[in-house]
Amino acid sequence: AVDKIRLIPQDFFAELCEQIIQHLNHKIPGINTAELCQRIQTSGVDINIGDLAKVANTLSFLFSTAARNKLSTEELVTALGSGVSPLPKHAVQVIRHVWNEQGKAIAVSEDARNTAAVGQFVDMKWKLGVAMSSDTCRSLKYPYVTVTLTVADPSGQITDKSFEMTIPQFKNFFRQFKEMASVLETV
């Protein structure tokens, strides 16, 4: 991850650190690495989304471990400098600044960590479609519902998960959501 951190310009690295801190503070559901990666690539840096996700995971682990151990800014910077492959100077400066400004606010309660371990639901979109025909069947006229769930995984990476359902499956899905809503209203 250190080699990839060297590639990331300081302003993008600072933005990534800020988003990670906000995610750890439960202010945003996750880090949109796809969008950030595209912006970094547009600036001329050759980095792929997998490498950026590794950097984000490493930084998330760094910040959450530092919060759990209640490290001061100087203790964190000292720990970063004593590693096998030290971070670039610009990265240490950004981490120092972000940790000094916002690091103390990271909520590290057991409940918050347990909740984050399963990921977080961000958004849901659905659309109704009709398959008119296919290679093997001239006339289908088969209605279906496509559902896209946006989810932030435990490390904060935002991903979309899509699936299709028949109308009876969607009606069952909808019924289950109504049951959940009625249970939540009693809480």
TrEMBL record:
InterPro entries assigned: COMM (IPR017920), COMMD4/6/7/8 (IPR047155)
Pfam families: COMM_domain
MF-aspect GO terms: NF-kappaB binding
Domain COMM intervals: 120-187
Family label: Belongs to the COMM domain-containing protein 6 family.
Physiological role: Scaffold protein in the commander complex that is essential for endosomal recycling of transmembrane cargos; the commander complex is composed of the CCC subcomplex and the retriever subcomplex. May modulate activity of cullin-RING E3 ubiquitin ligase (CRL) complexes. Down-regulates activation of NF-kappa-B. Inhibits TNF-induced NFKB1 activation.
Matches recorded under PANTHER family: COMM DOMAIN-CONTAINING PROTEIN 4-8 FAMILY MEMBER, COMM DOMAIN-CONTAINING PROTEIN 6
UniProt protein name: COMM domain-containing protein 6
Gene: Commd6
